[in-house]
Amino acid sequence: MDVEVELIESKVVFSFLPRIDDGVYNEKIKINNTTMFVEFEDIDHSELCNIHPDHLALAIILVSNPFVGSILNIPFAVSEGFKNATKIITKYKINFPMENAAPYSPSGATRPGLSFSGGADSTAALLIMPESTLSVFMDRPLKEKASLYNKSAAYATIEHAKSQGHDVRIIRCDLEYLRTPIGFPSDLAPAIPLILMASVNNIDSIAYGTVLESAYRVGHESCRDYKTSGHYRVWGGLFSAANIPLYLPVSGISEVGTSSIVQSSSFKEFTRSCIRGIWPDSCENCWKCFRKNLVESRLIGQVIGDSEMSKWLAVREVRSKLRAWPISHENVLAWSLQGRNVTGNLQQMLLNRTEGSARNMNFLERWYIHCIELIPQQYQEFTQKSISKYLEPMMEDELEQISTHTMTDWLNSAAAKQSRHLFLDWLDQTTNNHV
Fold first, then answer.
1. Three-state DSSP class for 337?
2. Beta-strand (E) ranges in 123-261?
3. Strand (E) positions, 140-232?
4. pLDDT, tens only, 27-81
5. How many angstroms separate the CA atoms of 250 and 215, rounded?
6. From CA 103, how far away is CA 101, in angstroms rounded?
7. Distance from chain centroid for Cα 381
8. CA atoms of 421 and 412, how far apart (whole Å)
9. Residue 102: what are its φ and ψ, rounded to 5°?
10. Is pLDDT of 119 > 50?
11. How far apart are CA 88 and CA 92, in angstroms?
12. Exposure winner among 86, 152, 232, 321, fewest CB in 10 A?
């Protein structure tokens, strides 16, 4: 794959030129468009010319990685350190010009950057990061009938953040349309506008609202030590080589904890994780609404009985997600159902369907202190003190569960199989009523 980069007025435009073996990630995901832009209305053209080449190259790799067959040709020089770091990618070879550029070195006062979505997880990250943090929201241009995504909730959160003194920028970028179906080419791609702003704003690290469930895969069949995972070795290595290392402030905090942090802040009435409803309303018709509402109901002690639960179990997307084995974010769902505020036969039937029927999930109310190694050293002490204002650390026996726990024995148990069978039978029997 060949790449071209142009500065056209306030836009950085990337063109991807696929070769015969490029363009396909899997049967479902393929490259669709060959150009994308990032628009910086408030940055002078002369400053855009000074975007560091390592950051341009990192952005290119984040976008093109799923679609490169054997060779990625980047047409400009990068630093020797970044060039060497790309060798960890073995799926394809990256070619650069022979000469090397000077490495990125922020000068003067530095600060972290946060890839900000406006949801509960990234808002919690914002609340425990330094006040100097630059947060950047990637504003996706919407095409009619192309997506159910609605930005009104994110805009409301951003306006409140600005009113509280946070530096939040909105940057237009259409990278989601590079692929079909529409979506991010990689999970870290939403930070591309921020990455390209790093050299203009003396950014020294890039933060995400990556939570415990995503980093350590708590709630999946097997947990992992994220620091030693292939994902972190590749991407963490590339970000570090570009001298903007990853900063994952909520990686040791569950969705339970991020919701608790937001509920304890001035963002309580301004942050919503649903990306479909029109602000101030949620759509109340998606999996995320179901999961987040159950969490928040337990946090505030709101009672949910069979009547309320049956309405949620009538939602097509919820019914589909609950057929998975294990269920996505099963630990969060189980914690919510273990609360005394959720009562009735449906609650018990669904709880029996999860590992929560055999395991206490209250450790999700605390934070995993070893995540501090996923935070740049200069921000470790500050972040730890900030988290401690909201959450207690996990106990010793709970720490071991994060990177070593597996659900396999429970999933293969007779009790789990029987509970799953009963629940799926109930779903099948009620399907006709909800079509």
1. helix
2. 134-139, 167-173, 179-180, 203-207, 246-247
3. 167-173, 179-180, 203-207
4. 999 999 999 999 998 888 778 888 999 999 999 999 999 999 999 999 999 999 9
5. 9
6. 6
7. 23
8. 13
9. -70, 145
10. yes
11. 10
12. 152
Q: Is 359 helix (H, G, I), strand (E, B) or coil?
A: coil
Are 64 and 92 in contact by the 8 Å Cβ rule? The answer is: no
DSSP per-residue letters across 12-57: EEEEEE--TT-SBSSSS-EE--SEEEEE-TTS-HHHHTT--HHHHH
DSSP string of 220-234? BSB---GGGSHHIII
- E strand or H helix that includes residue 111: strand 111-115
How far, CA to CA in Å, does 14 sit from each of 4, 110, 157, 351? 6, 28, 30, 48
Helix, coil or strand: residue 168: strand
Rounded distance, CA 350 to CA 328, Å? Answer: 14
CB 65 within 8 A of CB 37: no
Mean pLDDT of the chain: 94
Tokens of 138: 């990637």
Query: In the numeric block, which tokens belong to residue 209?
Result: 């609202």
User: Checking DSSP bridges between strand 11-17 and strand 2-8, what pairing results, if any?
Assistant: antiparallel
* Residue 375: C-alpha distances to residues 117, 240, 244, 379, 393 (Å): 20, 12, 12, 7, 16
Residue 405 region, left (φ>0) first, then alpha (ψ -120 to 50), else beta?
beta
The four Cα atoms 210, 212, 218, 219 give a dihedral, to 10 degrees, of: -70
356 CB contacts (<8 Å, ≥6 apart)? Answer: 330, 331, 333, 334, 335, 337, 338
Two tokens, residue 316: 């097509």
Cβ 72 vs Cβ 61: under 8 Å? yes
pTM to 2 decimal places: 0.95
pLDDT in tens, 79-88: 999 999 999 9
pLDDT at 420: 96
**CA angle in degrees (0–180, nearest 5) for 68-73-75:** 145
Give the span between the Cα atoms of 30 and 18, in whole angstroms: 12
The residue ranges of DSSP E strands in 309-373, in sequence order, are none
Identity at 104, one-letter amino acid code: Y
Percent of the chain with pLDDT over 90: 88
Beta bridge partners of 4: 15
What is the rounded radius of gyration, in angstroms, for the C-alpha atoms of the chain?
A: 22
